[in-house]
Amino acid sequence: TQLLEQSPQFLSIQEGENLTVYCNSSSVFSSLQWYRQEPGEGPVLLVTVVTGGEVKKLKRLTFQFGDARKDSSLHITAAQPGDTGLYLCAGAGGKLIFGQGTELSVKP
Amino acid sequence: GAVVSQHPSRVICKSGTSVKIECRSLDFQATTMFWYRQFPKQSLMLMATSNEGSKATYEQGVEKDKFLINHASLTLSTLTVTSAHPEDSSFYICSATPGGSGNTIYFGEGSWLTVV
User: Which of A53, B29, B43, B44 could form a disulfide with B36 if both were Cys (CB 3.0 to 4.6 A apart)?
Assistant: First the structure.
């Protein structure tokens, strides 16, 4: 069974701080996706990383896929209150398996 | 763009009754749809893979007789929670992938089920 360990599960920071969320697995995934979810809504795709070592940037968000395609990280620079939400990593390998999620709270 | 729609978005049912949730792909055909369950502030847990024209594939620990899945057409999958209990109260989300589009996955808006 493929499992994704996501950490931290809860994160509360002040506006302007940087943060990193990690997603680790013992399994290799063909691709890994990061989602953001608002309460009561479906998750919204932020990025898909496919190639080992790949780095993608989305404004203040930087996503990295590990060389072995078993882990990934999401780094947010200068976090803003609007970044508050549930961040989910998900590995694709036939079906999409989600990590436990990271509940981020950015306080003004 | 591609849209996946769920109905109802919110439903309240009495304990012991059954409730059906629909997942529709509005502008593409989906041979495979996925059903997830999510508790507040927790991640999505895959319940089952819904296959058009064949039986659903359930994840370990998910009761197939309690969570009935029917994928009768290429644009519709339904999840029926039978003999619902309060502990079945949760957010249920479906997703679908258009054939031949690689890893593009589209999620529905989710359905809140409350069993009283």
Answer: B44
CB A7 within 8 Å of CB A88:
no
Chain B: give the shortest CA distance to residue A77, in Å: 23
How far B83 CA lies from chain A's nearest CA (Å)? 24
List pLDDT tens digits, range A23-73. 999 888 888 999 999 888 889 999 999 999 999 999 999 999 999 999 999
Check CB contact under 8 Å for B34 and A95. Answer: yes
- Tell me which chain B residues have a C-beta less than 8 angstroms from the C-beta of A45: 105
Domain count, chain A: 1
pLDDT at A5: 92
Query: What are the tokens at A75?
Result: 């780094």
CA angle B66/B38/B33 to nearest 5° reads 65
Per-residue pLDDT reduced to its tens digit, A3-15 = 899 999 999 999 9
User: Which amino acid type is present at position A63?
Assistant: F
